[in-house]
Every structure is written in C-alpha cells, then in structure tokens.
C-alpha cells in the first residue's frame, strides 16, 4: 500500500519534530506561516529558531503555501498553538479533501469558547475524524532521538492504530486510547500546573514543596477532566502524570520557565518578551478556571496561577493562599 501523504500545520519545535519523524516513512510536508522559516527547512534542513542545532531529514518538505501543503494530504497534523488553530483551519477547510483525518498535537484550550482542539476541529472541519497525540515529549529530546512515548486518542481505534504507525519509531512509542477529552484536558492542564511548579523553583522552594504541588496538581486536573467526561486512569498515564512530571521538571519546558520567572519576581510581560516560543499555559489558565466554575469543580492551584498571571498577585501571595486552606481527605475532598 502507498504511504499516505502527511501535511503538518505549524513549523514550530513540535510540528517540525513530528514532521521529521513522519517523513522517514511517508511523504511529509510542513506548512510554516513564515516563508523564510519554510525556506530554511527546505534549503538548509534546519529550523534554528525553534529547534536549534537539529539537522532535519532530507525527505521533510516545507512550504508557506497552505494549498500546496494541504490539498493532496491524506492525513492532517495540527501543530499551531491553540489560540491560532481555528483561523488556520478555517483557511484549510475549502482545500482539504473531506475524508482526511486530523491529529492534533496542540496542548491548550481556546479562550472564549473553552473548547479543546478536537472540538475546534469538529466545528471548522466537520465530518473529519479527529484525535490527539499527547505525552511527555520535550521536542528537543524527541528530535535528537532520545526514547519517549505518547498516547494517540481517537474514537475509532482502527484508525488510531493506522495513524499511530505513521509516527511510531523504535524510540518513539505510541500507545492508543479512546479517551480523547481526557488526553486533551491532561495535555492542556499540565501546562498551567507547570507554571505553578516553576513559581516554586523561582522562589527557591524545596523539592518537597514541588512534589506536593505536582501531586496535588495531578489530582486537581484529574477531578476537572473527569467532570468533563475524561477517565481517571488517563490522568495517571502518559498524557497526564507523565507529561505533568516532565513539564514541571524539565529545564527545557517553556511553561515551567514562565513560572520560574514569575517566582523570581519578574513581570509576565518581561518573561514572555524574552521567549521565542509559545507557553500555552498562560492563555489556558483562565480557560481552566472558567471551565471548572461551569462544572462546579474547585481548582485552587489553577486559581492561584491565574491570580499571578492575570490579576497582579505575587507568587508569595499565591503560595500563602494555598497554604492557608486546611488539607482534607487526600483522595476524596475537593480541596487541593
Ligand atoms: N515543543 C514541545 O516540546 C511540545 C509542544 N507541544 C504543543 O505543540 C503545540 C505547538 O507548539 P510548539 O511547536 O512547541 O510551538 P513553537 O512556539 O515552537 O512554534 C509555534 C509555531 O506556530 C506558528 N504560529 C504561531 N501562531 C500561529 C498562527 N496564529 N497561525 C499560524 N502559525 C502560527 C509559529 O510561527 C511557529 O512556527 C503547542 O500546543 C504545544 O503545547 C506538544 C508537545 C511537545
Ligand atoms: O508539552 C511539552 C512536553 O510534553 C512541552 O512543554 P512546554 O510547552 O512547557 O515546553
């Protein structure tokens, strides 16, 4: 059987990495919004802004022409940050053939609508099967061939198995799941909690404090995700606890870096001005808090992150606020 043609939207660190993996077995093209980024990938086999030092495979094509990328695609991979995906998909809709499945790499929730990315896909590309690939996957490490694993969640397990084969290598293990909302909520929420743990780093808290916040964050995101229809075991898996661990501890995590800057007393705008890549947790934090309100779930850790990110509270205030509340039953209460 002929290998399917894959189009990846977004030539950032993760879109480029996943495109590079897929290009080893299938014809793959990455769409970059910026023509000079597409030229750099196509001509120099590098993407210095997003994947410094990486040497990209010859088979990976790149273009800034959306129609060229998408019109003959058999599989569409979405790697554009959450707040930009809808408008890109709107432009893709008239070009994409109607049966093409969509795999989202995106770990964020849309502001205003509170939608996950496969829900955005369902609205903008109705009828296209959609799933999410998510897990503890720092792009730089995956791109350099270090072993890692992710979960591909789709309602149709037969299609999930076929798509998983496109991204699987001997070093990149792809597991399957049908808990799409659980996998997407886990991927979006862990960024918010990595900001909380980064704040502890910046404020020079100890390892015990960080372990406490990570563990209770895992429970907070599982409670919210379950209330939205996700399964508890998903939050204990690769897309949940696995990704929470790596994002809260990796020196490469952009969300943890934002929290660290805030913990050092820097202003959010100043921290973001020094970054060339996205930190999805910044825009997803208010969405998490609003969604939690809608479904009646307490999310004290996310609320404190929101206080610092959007409401002028200091990191000290946030941690004092958290420590003031009395701990209840470890696994049954709705506190933190
Ligand atoms: N970098 C990583 O280690 C991983 C990232 N992810 C997720 O993948 C998604 C993409 O992130 P990265 O590639 O890391 O981001 P990035 O910051 O490295 O690159 C983002 C790319 O999207 C483009 N872009 C931004 N806004 C756009 C818009 N409105 N329209 C079109 N293009 C736009 C940028 O030009 C850039 O090429 C995020 O949701 C992230 O959470 C998931 C797993 C690992
Ligand atoms: O999703 C990621 C790792 O799995 C990347 O995390 P950051 O966006 O915080 O860098």
UniProtKB/TrEMBL annotation:
<feature type="binding site">
    <location>
        <position position="139"/>
    </location>
    <ligand>
        <name>NAD(+)</name>
    </ligand>
</feature>
<feature type="binding site">
    <location>
        <position position="253"/>
    </location>
    <ligand>
        <name>sn-glycerol 3-phosphate</name>
    </ligand>
</feature>
<feature type="binding site">
    <location>
        <position position="278"/>
    </location>
    <ligand>
        <name>NADPH</name>
    </ligand>
</feature>
<dbReference type="GO" id="GO:0008654">
    <property type="term" value="P:phospholipid biosynthetic process"/>
</dbReference>
<keyword id="KW-1208">Phospholipid metabolism</keyword>
<feature type="binding site">
    <location>
        <position position="135"/>
    </location>
    <ligand>
        <name>sn-glycerol 3-phosphate</name>
    </ligand>
</feature>
<keyword id="KW-0594">Phospholipid biosynthesis</keyword>
<dbReference type="GO" id="GO:0141153">
    <property type="term" value="F:glycerol-3-phosphate dehydrogenase (NADP+) activity"/>
</dbReference>
<feature type="active site" description="Proton acceptor">
    <location>
        <position position="190"/>
    </location>
</feature>
<feature type="binding site">
    <location>
        <position position="14"/>
    </location>
    <ligand>
        <name>NADPH</name>
    </ligand>
</feature>
<feature type="binding site">
    <location>
        <position position="139"/>
    </location>
    <ligand>
        <name>NADPH</name>
    </ligand>
</feature>
<dbReference type="Pfam" id="PF07479">
    <property type="entry name" value="NAD_Gly3P_dh_C"/>
</dbReference>
<feature type="binding site">
    <location>
        <position position="33"/>
    </location>
    <ligand>
        <name>NADPH</name>
    </ligand>
</feature>
<feature type="binding site">
    <location>
        <position position="254"/>
    </location>
    <ligand>
        <name>NAD(+)</name>
    </ligand>
</feature>
<keyword id="KW-0443">Lipid metabolism</keyword>
<dbReference type="GO" id="GO:0046167">
    <property type="term" value="P:glycerol-3-phosphate biosynthetic process"/>
</dbReference>
<dbReference type="InterPro" id="IPR006168">
    <property type="entry name" value="G3P_DH_NAD-dep"/>
</dbReference>
<dbReference type="GO" id="GO:0006650">
    <property type="term" value="P:glycerophospholipid metabolic process"/>
</dbReference>
<dbReference type="InterPro" id="IPR036291">
    <property type="entry name" value="NAD(P)-bd_dom_sf"/>
</dbReference>
<keyword id="KW-0444">Lipid biosynthesis</keyword>
<feature type="binding site">
    <location>
        <position position="107"/>
    </location>
    <ligand>
        <name>NADPH</name>
    </ligand>
</feature>
<feature type="binding site">
    <location>
        <position position="50"/>
    </location>
    <ligand>
        <name>NADPH</name>
    </ligand>
</feature>
<feature type="binding site">
    <location>
        <position position="255"/>
    </location>
    <ligand>
        <name>sn-glycerol 3-phosphate</name>
    </ligand>
</feature>
<keyword id="KW-0520">NAD</keyword>
<comment type="function">
    <text>Catalyzes the reduction of the glycolytic intermediate dihydroxyacetone phosphate (DHAP) to sn-glycerol 3-phosphate (G3P), the key precursor for phospholipid synthesis.</text>
</comment>
<feature type="binding site">
    <location>
        <position position="280"/>
    </location>
    <ligand>
        <name>NADPH</name>
    </ligand>
</feature>
<dbReference type="InterPro" id="IPR006109">
    <property type="entry name" value="G3P_DH_NAD-dep_C"/>
</dbReference>
<dbReference type="GO" id="GO:0005975">
    <property type="term" value="P:carbohydrate metabolic process"/>
</dbReference>
<feature type="domain" description="Glycerol-3-phosphate dehydrogenase NAD-dependent N-terminal">
    <location>
        <begin position="6"/>
        <end position="158"/>
    </location>
</feature>
<dbReference type="GO" id="GO:0051287">
    <property type="term" value="F:NAD binding"/>
</dbReference>
<dbReference type="GO" id="GO:0046168">
    <property type="term" value="P:glycerol-3-phosphate catabolic process"/>
</dbReference>
<feature type="binding site">
    <location>
        <position position="107"/>
    </location>
    <ligand>
        <name>substrate</name>
    </ligand>
</feature>
<keyword id="KW-0547">Nucleotide-binding</keyword>
<dbReference type="InterPro" id="IPR011128">
    <property type="entry name" value="G3P_DH_NAD-dep_N"/>
</dbReference>
<feature type="domain" description="Glycerol-3-phosphate dehydrogenase NAD-dependent C-terminal">
    <location>
        <begin position="179"/>
        <end position="318"/>
    </location>
</feature>
<feature type="binding site">
    <location>
        <begin position="254"/>
        <end position="255"/>
    </location>
    <ligand>
        <name>substrate</name>
    </ligand>
</feature>
<feature type="binding site">
    <location>
        <position position="243"/>
    </location>
    <ligand>
        <name>sn-glycerol 3-phosphate</name>
    </ligand>
</feature>
<feature type="binding site">
    <location>
        <begin position="10"/>
        <end position="15"/>
    </location>
    <ligand>
        <name>NAD(+)</name>
    </ligand>
</feature>
<comment type="pathway">
    <text>Membrane lipid metabolism; glycerophospholipid metabolism.</text>
</comment>
<dbReference type="InterPro" id="IPR008927">
    <property type="entry name" value="6-PGluconate_DH-like_C_sf"/>
</dbReference>
<feature type="binding site">
    <location>
        <position position="190"/>
    </location>
    <ligand>
        <name>sn-glycerol 3-phosphate</name>
    </ligand>
</feature>
<dbReference type="GO" id="GO:0005829">
    <property type="term" value="C:cytosol"/>
</dbReference>
